Amino acid sequence: MTAQVSLRPAPTVSAAVARRRRLHVRWHWLLPTWGWLVILWLSLPIIVMIVFGFNATTGKFNFTWQGFTLQWYRQLFAIPDLTNALVNSVTISVIVTVIATTLGTFLGLALGRYVFHGSGSVNLVMFANIAAPEVVLGAALLSLFLTLNVPRGYLTIVIAQVMFSIPYVAITVSARARSLDPAYEEASRDLGAGPYVTFWKVTLPLLFPGVLAGALLTFALSIDDYIITSFNAGSTMTFPLWVFGVSRVGVPPQVNVMGTIIFVFGVLLALLTALAGRRRA
Amino acid sequence: MNARLGARLAPYWLALPGWLWLLVFFVIPIVVMLSLSTQTGDILTGFSQTWHWQNYVNGWNEFSTEFLRSLLYGLIATVLCIGIGFPVAYWIAFYGGNHKSSLLFLLLLPFFVSFVIRTQSWNFILADDGMVLSPLKNAGLVSPEFHILSTPVAVIGGLTYNFLPFMVLPIYVALERIEPALLEASSDLYASRAASLRRVVLPLSMPGVFAGVLLTFVPASSDFVNATILGGTNTTMIGNVIQTEYFTNLDYPVAAALSFILMGGLLIGVFAYARTLGTGDILDMAAAS
Predict the structure, then answer these.
(1) Considering only alpha carbons, which residue of chain B is nearest residue A270?
(2) Domain of B180?
(3) ipTM score here?
């Protein structure tokens, strides 16, 4: 629509019109080129990751193309430490998603639906949590664990990741809760439903898109987190921690394969969610 | 307990578990870290609370280079993100047509790959004998000693790459909200394209740019993954220092003090920027993106 607007002939001398149209044509060509170049730049490391998962590399470093092989897909779980790290990452993310989504949904519902004492402080703390540098979040929690002599490991990773995920869920759910018409809940109460029935049968289904968005965001943040996790992991390994650990000594091609599988799975999931959303709408 | 009291207490019950988690594992740790940052001692004999604020001075004196370098790298990466990302957001918002969601999706593809692997992938690409440099070296176009890794270019490039989507998204959201009628009006009033861009589009995109700067500058200047994987000894950032102090030197008080200096520096920067811009709805923008 903007294109039509600017094509409208302006009542100026014809030379100026011609010049503007030339500029316009160049603009039309320049912007998409730039956009596609940036998209290509963003995709480059992903393409490299996928391609080099098929590389018949022999040495420690997977830098140069040596020929096509499916060896690394067959020997995907040949490195026990790496497999273990991936399993930890997946199980931690599932646990974190369940806890953070539950707590975040309740918190978001309280913030989006009610006016209560202290809601300002909750908002402030959530904003500080999102805005604070990850290093600081990780270091602060580590300071607590060090002071209380809590050994770091699987459990402390879960604690740390739930901590940084709750605000994201609460914000998406509260935005959704704010846009809900309270009439539905009133109708449910008028029809004799108690608060629990109303919550499970009316409020939660209406909030669901917000809850789902928060859960997906949490899972994505959790499975990918490096900085905060690295401060609170002790000797427990997650997938990003393991990859970071071997980055100086050579990353085995299995990492590319696992990265590719996670990538394909994530993209498919996102596309399916989008398709389902479109069908509903 | 009667029903009305129950209803009045409902928000408190709902908010309580999440609030407690944030209180115990975020607010209290910050207080504990503040206390830790003024303690003295060492790992063997234990640390004791001595209100030794000198830790901050020592931390600053020893690591001011890394601090300033981090802020500088973060600033350059943020400016590059605006420069690279604004035209992309503009393109998608105004020329995306029916493909807006698809283009945004392509822009978000990197998020489906782990941050560490993406950065590691750049290490492959830019390696001294990797796919970019070895053909150039074999062709004699660059000297055999030439390298990109371990230079500020590699680190800043990595930061720009990793945080670009956080800049494009909020700018896109802001541009998308601009009423086409405003541009039409501007054009009807004989504003040139450039004038419309400068006088209408740019001011209206400022909340997006602000959110983008917040989402880019803070994580970029406190990041240490890029500096570790792509950088060398001359590109150490403050995140690296904090990590080393905690895990290698086991000097917890100085590490805690450095974390506070970092947070203070970034907060002052962000608030100064917010004041000059006068943007109030940061949280909304962050949530919207």
Answers:
(1) B105
(2) 63-288
(3) 0.88
